[in-house]
Amino acid sequence: MAQAAAAATAPAVNVIPIGDGFSTTFTVSDIRNGALESIVASVPSTAIPQEFYWVGVSDLPANRAVKFAEVIVRAHYAYIRRINSSIPEAKARETAIIVGGTRAGITAYWSVTTADLSPSELGGRIATYRAAAGTDPEGVTVTTTSGSTTTTAQQGDWTNWVALTSTERARVAYHILLGIAIIPGQGYSLVNTGHHFLSTAGKKARAGWDAIKKQFLQMVDAPTREWITGLGADWEDLAFHKAGHPVLMSLKISMASDPSMRDKIKRAGFGAAAVRLPAISPEFMKARVAQSMIMKASSILTAAGATIDTVALDNIVGRVVNETDAAARALLVEQSKGVVDRAGADLGIVAGIVQKVSEDLPTAQQTLTNSFTFRKIVAEYPAEVARGMMLARAVLSRQREAIERGTSSGVSISFGAVV
């Protein structure tokens, strides 16, 4: 009875219903443990001004983007004029040709849809694509409004548009082709610098973009080449940075890291955009550099009687290179980091050997020792680097006595068991 009375007077438990749980529009990544390639941007990016947000034509299939490129350019022109009313008409038109033309190419060649774009950089749809009833697939109409997204002022800019001249149509056509290069170009830049495009970066970060621009200028006609050259850095900012910026970073990194993209882009004719693919994340770069170091130092290590076991390293590198699934590749990249880390300070010894054998090479040929990853290993293991240099010096000068005195004692390079 006492227990029943106590139970009756016990305070009620305050139960809070969970309901359907908390949902968000962004993707949560495992930043602590995930590989670089698996991280998806969650924080909205406001790195580009609003006038450069992605606008276009509602319901326009990607395979119609080229046919309706002028409509896309026209939509960008109307949007730019509304957001920045102080911009001169000629400047707005020029900007729309570069940005809109390139985005028409990005849409067509990369099958970009709204789901592939950053929600924070969408400027809405200014026109709507409608297929004409009772006609063949080429028979289409395009209306000029899209709900409340088109303001009166914007509608005026749309209506006042003057059709592209033959010169301007050629410029748009060339920028459609440039759309092939933008996604892998920005993906490569994101992997190596963390930025879509760096106009003042060093030679390594600029090399990919400089090659793309060089090939592009060879593709265009003389008047277009002169026009682009005259725009200088402004053209690079619009074409290389602004045009592709709204496309999700995860998509660009995934495409640039995909081993199959190199041959696809070369086959499409834009070899300059393919030459540095697939883009290699810092974690995987360390594994590739470790391979190159071992190869360069192998003769010295063999002469010094060191043991070398690279089976696990070669295994994981091969699997990463051949993996085409983005998620699986990200996991393998993370595993490659663990394989290299197991070698520990032994890589410092190898780095010292490489430094010594590279001393007599011309500076231009010292690509391995000049790499960021190599220099980071050298800085991390100074004592081991010194030991490696001593070992190489002894072998190269045939001072066998120095080796027997312990210079090479205990050297055993291993990357663990086969993964």
Describe the structure.
- Helices cover 56% and strands 6% of the residues.
- It is mostly helical and 419 residues long.
- The protein folds into two domains: 224 residues, no CATH class; 133 residues, no CATH class.
- It has a three-stranded mixed beta sheet, with helices on one face.
- Helix 11 runs antiparallel to helix 12.
- The protein is elongated and about 80 Å long.
- The N and C termini lie far apart (66 Å).
- About 1% of the residues have low confidence.
Concise account of the structure shown:
With 419 residues, the protein is mainly α. Helix content is 56%, strand content 6%.
Tag the structure with descriptive keywords.
2 domains, two-stranded parallel ribbon, three-stranded mixed sheet, about 425 residues, single chain, about 55% helix, mainly alpha
SSE map:
Layout (H helix, E strand, L loop, with lengths): L1 H8 L44 E5 L10 H15 L5 H22 L11 E10 L8 E4 L8 H8 L6 H28 L9 H17 L2 H10 L1 H10 L6 H9 L3 H8 L13 H22 L3 E3 L1 H12 L3 H18 L2 H13 L8 H4 L1 H9 L1 H15 L3 H8 L4 E3 L5
Parallel strand pairs: 1-2, 4-5
Antiparallel strand pairs: 2-3
